[in-house]
């Protein structure tokens, strides 16, 4: 009776706050264990806390929520530390191992999320909703569901008497999406780690038609993040007296040249492995392009096909896009200044300076000043292909998603892993979230993750964490 009552309470919590007609559409929920329901509830509670940089940042409250969950799971309060840094915070939980002297396993993630304007969303981004088989809300994919899964898995391992040989450290940063100050602090504090398991990166792909798992990719490297500022200045004047040169027009032409510039497509060992393996499981036109590109990265037809797929264009080389534009100072005046930010994700092996020079050459106008404004990024090499990690993650993925192919790849985004790799600590991205490419709205509108990923995600962590903490 107690267990049934607890389950009923959890189900009520999961559906809480949803009008009756929406709750009806949300049924039926996928089969979830009690632990899965606990993870879903924790994810929902954390999504409701607006952990966005700036005024009203509730990242410290997310840290407090996670701390309470760990304590409720039987861990001692003294093992969990929360440190405030400006308007944010970071959390470190250390589960002491049985053997002294072994390097700890660090499980890395972040608690902050990208800003979201409720007026633009179909559903309020900070009111988590379970509907039509998905968890909706800012952080549902990036990455509060992953945090909830790993915390619940740690609690479940503890409940069942697991005792790690080496320390397990859960390190959650509080500004990964912005300044990465806490990310660097954690990498400094945990520079003696033997390995970092970054649950913000990697993950599985679901078939677009059937929704069944296709393959699982773990990440051993990531591209370098960079921001470049383009600035055009001019004396300006009265808008009734147009001149041959207009600062906004000059900037617009420069931005078109950036848009049309194609960086040389290239491969490394990780991306070649990804394309060769993913080709076996992809639709025919895409599969053919993957195989052709893996064989010859200069194949123009293959390049065009891969560049047309947003989830793959970042895998074939450096990408640069304009992300912000500002110009002019008055409605009735010629602009005296126009500027834009170009955000680049640089393929490993190239420096930020290399890309700055290439962009400058592509623009071909010396009056457009370009400067590197990157503040929170470092260039790092790939982590080694560790057979211990490869074996452990293959076994864990198979336990959760039987017979689903597992292979390495490269992350097109930036993460906390860069700060650990900079210090020589191998870091591997291995999120358990399986999602359709068409459902991936991280950093965008109506972010969501399928509830079907929760139960296998729990099994995955409960296999992987013991394997890596021996």
From TrEMBL:
GO molecular function ontology, one term from the record: carboxypeptidase activity
Keywords noted in UniProt: Hydrolase, Metal-binding, Protease, Zinc
Pfam families per record: M20_dimer, Peptidase_M20
Domain Peptidase M20 dimerisation span(s) in chain numbering: 221-365
Hydrolase in keyword set: yes
One GO term of the biological process aspect: proteolysis involved in protein catabolic process
Superkingdom classification of source: Bacteria
PANTHER family per record: N-FATTY-ACYL-AMINO ACID SYNTHASE/HYDROLASE PM20D1, N-FATTY-ACYL-AMINO ACID SYNTHASE_HYDROLASE PM20D1
Family per record: Belongs to the peptidase M20A family.
Protein name, as recorded: Peptidase M20
Organism: Swaminathania salitolerans
Source lineage: Bacteria, Pseudomonadati, Pseudomonadota, Alphaproteobacteria, Acetobacterales
């Amino acid at each position: 009776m107690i267990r049934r009552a607890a389950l009923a309470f959890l189900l009520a919590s999961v559906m809480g706050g949803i009008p009756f007609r929406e709750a009806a559409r949300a049924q039926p929920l996928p089969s979830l264990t009690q632990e899965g329901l606990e993870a879903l509830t924790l994810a929902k509670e954390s999504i409701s806390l607006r952990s966005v940089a700036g005024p009203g940042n509730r990242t410290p409250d997310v840290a407090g929520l996670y701390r309470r969950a760990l304590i409720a799971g039987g861990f001692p309060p003294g093992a969990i530390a929360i440190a405030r840094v400006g308007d944010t915070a970071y959390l470190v939980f250390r589960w002491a191992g049985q053997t002294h002297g072994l390097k700890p396993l660090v499980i890395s993630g972040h608690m902050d999320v990208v800003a979201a304007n409720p007026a633009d969303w179909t559903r309020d981004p900070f009111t988590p909703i379970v509907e039509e088989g998905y968890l909706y809300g800012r952080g549902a994919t990036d990455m509060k569901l992953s945090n909830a899964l790993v915390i619940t898995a740690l609690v479940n391992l503890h409940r069942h008497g697991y005792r790690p040989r080496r320390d397990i450290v859960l390190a959650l940063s509080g500004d990964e999406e912005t300044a990465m100050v806490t990310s660097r602090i954690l990498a400094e504090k945990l520079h003696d780690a033997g390995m970092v398991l970054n649950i913000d990166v990697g993950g599985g792909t679901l078939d677009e038609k059937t929704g069944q798992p296709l393959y699982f990719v773990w990440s051993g490297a990531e591209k370098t993040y960079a921001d470049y500022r383009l600035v055009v200045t001019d004396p300006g004047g009265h808008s009734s007296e147009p001149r041959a040169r207009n600062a906004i027009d000059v900037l617009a032409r420069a931005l078109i040249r950036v848009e049309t510039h194609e960086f040389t497509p290239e491969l490394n060992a990780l991306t070649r492995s990804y394309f060769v393996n993913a080709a076996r499981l992809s639709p025919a036109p895409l599969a053919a392009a993957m195989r052709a590109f893996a064989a010859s990265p200069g194949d123009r037809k293959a390049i065009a096909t891969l560049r047309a797929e947003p989830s793959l264009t970042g895998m074939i080389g450096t990408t640069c896009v304009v992300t912000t534009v500002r110009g002019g100072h008055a409605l009735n005046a010629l602009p005296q200044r126009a500027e834009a930010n170009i955000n680049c994700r640089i393929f490993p092996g190239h420096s930020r300076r290399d890309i700055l020079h290439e962009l400058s050459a592509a623009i071909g106008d010396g009056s457009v000043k370009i400067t590197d404004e990157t503040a929170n990024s470092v260039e790092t090499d790939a982590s080694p292909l560790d057979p211990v990690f490869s074996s452990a993650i293959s076994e864990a993925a198979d336990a959760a998603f039987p017979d689903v192919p597992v292979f390495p790849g490269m992350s097109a985004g930036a993460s906390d892993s860069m700060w650990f790799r900079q210090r020589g600590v191998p870091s591997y991205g291995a999120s358990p979230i399986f999602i359709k490419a068409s459902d991936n709205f991280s950093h965008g509108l109506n972010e969501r993750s399928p509830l079907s990923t929760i139960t296998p995600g729990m099994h995955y962590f409960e296999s992987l964490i013991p394997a890596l903490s021996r």
